[in-house]
Amino acid sequence: MQSLTAALSPDVYTNTSASQPHLSIAGLTKQFGDFTALKQIDLTIQEGELVCFLGPSGCGKTTLLRAIAGLAPQSSGSIVQRGREVSALPPQARDFGIVFQSYALFPNLTVYDNVAYGLRNQRQDRQQIRTRVAELLSLMELTGSEGKYPAALSGGQQQRVALARALATEPGLLLLDEPLSALDARVRVHLRSQMKALQRRLGVTTVMVTHDQEEALTMADRIVVMNHGVIEQVGTPAEIYQYPASEFVATFVGSMNLMDVTSKSAGSWQLGRQQLICPKSFSEAPSGHARLAVRPEAVTLSKSQEGLQADVANVEFLGAFLRVHLHLEGCDQPILADISSRDAQAISLDVNQRVSMCFPVEAMRLYPAGGSAA
Amino acid sequence: MNAVLSLLPQTLRSRESLIRLIVLLLAVALMVFGLLMPLLTMLIKSLQNRAGDFIGLANFAEYFQTPALANSIFQSLFVAFFSTAIVVSLAFLCAYGITRTCMPGKRAFRLLAILPILAPSLLPAISLVYLFGNQGWFRDVLMGQSIYGPIGIVMGMSFWIFPHALMILTTALSNSDARLYEAAEALGTPKWRTFLTITLPGVRYGLISCAFVVFTLAITDFGVPKIIGGQYSVLATDVYRQVVGQQNFQMGSVVSVILLLPAVISFIVDRVIQRRQVAQLSARAVPWQPAPQPLRDGVFTLICYSVAGIILLVIGTAIYASLVQFWPYNLSITLDHYGFDGLAGGGWPAWFNSLKLAFSVAVIGTLVVFFNAWLIEKTEGYAPLRQGLHFLAMLPMAVPGMVLGLAYIFFFNQAGNPFNWLYGTLAILVLNTLVHFYTVCHLTSVTALKQLDPEFEAVGASLKVPFWTTFWRVTLPVSLPAVLDISVYLFVNAMTTVSAVVFLYNSDTRLASVAVLHLDEAGYFASAAAMAVLIFFTSLVVKLLHALLTHVVLTRAQRWRLTS
């Protein structure tokens, strides 16, 4: 099911761009001794897009990035970049620039020498190098810092020097390994939009590894959600958020209510003791046990007698909205509902009060019981 | 199309990794031919008779049946235990003074305490003869006992080994966590209990490691017992006597194998302890700062400066002895003894040879050791080769100099050995000295490299820069302080070592340290002292130059280094 999603989504993309993919990964597996870090990864990345590898630590996203770079060669599988088979090539022979989490700026070289590091090796003449470095530094808003050493720069400036150094040789592919995680929250939010704008302007195909879902949702053209060495889902940020392909994706991206539901006959599902009004697609699921997912902001509350009857257990005030903890009779897990302050005024929400809870049909998702098998 | 495109990168790839492979193989070959093969040859020799026939353990049986030989085992253990006890306790007190008290003049004391390392171990032995010998100033202190024997050996070794122990214990004691002491104080714990429950457990690995290092140095040292041992023979002098005195190479190799055992055992114990020590101190520990306490500070000042006084007295005695016309009858000052004309040992040319050796080892050795450590630590691929090289780099620490020197004779002097031409050249001395002192340099390099960002090489590769450019432009400059440390360590050791090279020089490659030995044997005590003092001052000057250079490098680097 996961590989199906991964294989299908690029087709959607080619319809709009109609060019050959920048990078095609097929059947990629990476073993560290007995441990399998990546299992049969298939992925296609289009020219000019920004793809985020998103997942918890240890999911294999950095390993995949390092395999693309040739820094940690895969155990099996192939990588094709712009029609060129690069699977067996060392990093030197591949076409990419990389920014590491630590930036790995050379501490004994000035900003200028850091950025010019790769250019000097291409035997360009001094004037050319000078022009290119100046161009990059002005692009990164670092003009005037040429003579400084990395230790004298702020975290955000260091990050931009690392970016300039990676872009200096005009690589076809830019790899970013958690490029923002070493910065403090405020700078991070600012740099996010800056980096995205820069990437769009230069049109450089970019792969970014992150564990921060907000970063992925705001920056990526497409997100590759990974867990335990496999791709759980590939899709645009909206697709990932609205139509999570697995229970893991549903819980990892955004917050999600997950409830055990049971079915005695096809298409009829029960939550606790109450009957659910389900989307048509649910009738295809085999009867038995399953997990129902609804985002807290999709849950609506009213005073009517219809819908699921639940008791208010607790109300948290979170500024723009209220988070209501609800207790449903015959159901162990509390259900969360995010209600705007205005809506909350219409129904006075007091603890122990009974309210009517409604899940919009289009917001309900059903997953096999026992979590995603993968 | 694909094939054509991948042609160029393929050659690029094979070129870089081929070079890495070749260098790794060369490094492994260096250790195999410079360490493993000689040791193996020596082991085989110990199982052969003079004619070269295999006779099993017969040589060992003969050894243990000859009381004059087997006795040396107990005598060696005896002096080694005593030296260890004295050195570890004195070094602990002094290290405690440096790290845990507010005694004045800590820097000056540390400088003075390091001095014995700059002299060959022959120097304290010569000084002790002048101080406590038959015509010595303090002869009466020994109450009729002779300095020529265990007393002299223990005293001389303690002097020479003290700086090694002090360095280890100072490092161990400076790792403290103030939060533990504050907690103890808040609970009203008496000082002696704090010491027993916090301070001692905190340095227990350092103490054990220190004891084993000191024990190994003491049991393998050759210089001190050679000069001052008299009739009291130990294993190291037995090797020399069997080989040089009696030309009994088989028995020499038997003694070497026996001498190898305690060194190997303490090496293994030390490795095991080092591995355990890693996670001892958490990164959040707050270093403990001593507060002034007049009584405690006074006591430790007294202890430390007494030790420093003894060090200065011993070195001063050697200098004085080298300047006096004819001690104790004519005490006028002269530089005659620095002429070395017509005396044994080789005189000034030997000193020049030593300089040549020390410079060669310092330059070649530093590059070889540091580059190999870099290959092991910072490159991908060839994992078995890299792990093997790391293991080989750790081994020399377990091989005493006498054993290594004798093993070189056996291996390189064999008829039919393709490296036979090395025998009797300066090159074999360089190789031997480099291998002999390899481990400490390797560990220093690895520690320095581990502190660097692990992605420097990856960045270089992504920018299509060959690995040697990144090594030369980034890794080496950033590690310069450690590199300088290694080179001066190699220089000083090459200058002062006697044990291994005593078997390997010939008439063209005599060395200053060996000259001290020969001058002493021939009865030219003042000239022996003069040569030892010459070595000492050579090392001192190089050490001072090193300090100056390091200072310049660090000031320059201040521009980019975060910490001073």
TrEMBL record, chain A:
The keyword Metal-binding does not apply. The keyword Transport applies. SUPFAM superfamilies: MOP-like, P-loop containing nucleoside triphosphate hydrolases. Pfam families: ABC_tran (PF00005), TOBE_2 (PF08402). Residues 23-253 form the ABC transporter domain. One of its GO terms (molecular function) is ATP binding. Keywords: ATP-binding, Cell inner membrane, Cell membrane, Membrane, Nucleotide-binding, Translocase, Transport. NCBIfam families: PhnT2. This is 2-aminoethylphosphonate ABC transporter ATP-binding protein. It comes from Vreelandella vilamensis.
From TrEMBL, chain B:
It is found in: Cell membrane. InterPro entries: AminoethylPonate_ABC_perm-1 (IPR017664), MetI-like (IPR000515), MetI-like_sf (IPR035906). The keyword Transport applies. It comes from the Bacteria. The keyword Membrane applies. Keywords: Membrane, Transmembrane, Transmembrane helix, Transport. It is a multi-pass membrane protein. CDD domains: TM_PBP2. Residues 73-270, 351-546 form the ABC transmembrane type-1 domain. Its main location: membrane. The chain crosses the membrane at residues 21-44, 73-99, 111-133, 153-174, 195-219, 249-269, 299-321, 357-376, 388-409, 421-441, 482-505, 525-554. NCBIfam families: PhnU2. Belongs to the binding-protein-dependent transport system permease family. PANTHER family: POLYGALACTURONAN_RHAMNOGALACTURONAN TRANSPORT SYSTEM PERMEASE PROTEIN YTEP (PTHR43496:SF1), PROTEIN LPLB (PTHR43496). This is 2-aminoethylphosphonate ABC transporter permease subunit. It comes from Vreelandella vilamensis. The lineage of its organism: Bacteria, Pseudomonadati, Pseudomonadota, Gammaproteobacteria, Oceanospirillales.
